[in-house]
Amino acid sequence: MCDLDLLRRLLDREKIDWLGYSVGTWLGAQYATSFPTHVGRFVFNSKTELTTDWQGAFADFEAGVERWFREDFLPWGRSTTAATDATPPATRSGRPTSGCAPRSPRRRPC
Prior knowledge:
With 110 residues, the protein is mainly alpha-helical.
């Protein structure tokens, strides 16, 4: 964290503004904890675990991605496919479409 504060001083800034993605969220949170008087506007855009060190955060990463996939992504994907099947987009050929992946004409449809 001292490196970031050194950078702030070298740039002759009183405060740092921060936009943190992924591990940048953790890094910004650690800086804000270590140097609260030098924090400007901070935006964190991640589900990074902020209550542990980076080794602990990475140890839990796989379980977090699995939970996100199961609870958020799959339901969204299913609803998007259902919406596409209910109101298929127009095609140049006039053939109906569905939410399944495009296939070669020689293969069976979904």
